[in-house]
Amino acid sequence: MDYKTYFTTQPTDKIAKDLIGRPLYFNNGEKLGGYIVEAEAYMGKRDRAAHSYNGRRSQANEGLYGAGGTLYIYSQRQYFFFDVACQEKDEPQGVLIRAIEPVWGIDTMIKNRNGKTGPLLTNGPGKMMQALGITSRKWDLHFLTDSPFEIDLDDKSKRIPQKIVASSRVGINQSDPLWANKPLRYYVKGNPYVSKMKKRDFAQNNGWA
């Protein structure tokens, strides 16, 4: 399935869940990446947690308004975040990739993370981007196929979790409990690379079937 079809013909929360277990690569001379183990859906103008809530639109969040498959890369403090727009152009929904289990180019990712290893390498959206060597918003507004990023949509490449958990999103303002508590964050149960996963909850085989 091509990116345009994948990111526009199904609900955004379903896309976020389906991305769990798919490989994410960044290939800029060397292939870096791993399996997606955590992703959050943002449901557009009605979602109080979304950057596009109530139709907010600016140069900073224009990537969200692109056609499904457009990259929305944004920054907070010194960190960068990887979001993919979903739905048709001007319907600003998206999925934030929060964590990967690293597989490809691990030595380079460790260098990019100043020696951090194990779960600390990629167990959060800012850490993941740092591990991939992303230090700017250079690829914001690019379509996936026009960037060094790739999400492998071939089902044969996908790892199957024993269980995918749906929970509330991380760090969402509780002033609107309805949206703050919606189960729009998906992750592999027991995977050590999921952000905030406690060591006592780590699963055998990292939660894969």
UniProtKB/TrEMBL annotation:
HAMAP family attached to this UniProt entry: 3MGH
Pfam families (alphabetical): Pur_DNA_glyco (PF02245)
Family: Belongs to the DNA glycosylase MPG family.
Xref: InterPro entries: Formyl_transferase-like_C_sf, MPG, MPG_sf
Superkingdom, natural source: Bacteria
Protein name: Putative 3-methyladenine DNA glycosylase
UniProt keyword list: DNA damage, DNA repair, Hydrolase
EC number: 3.2.2.-
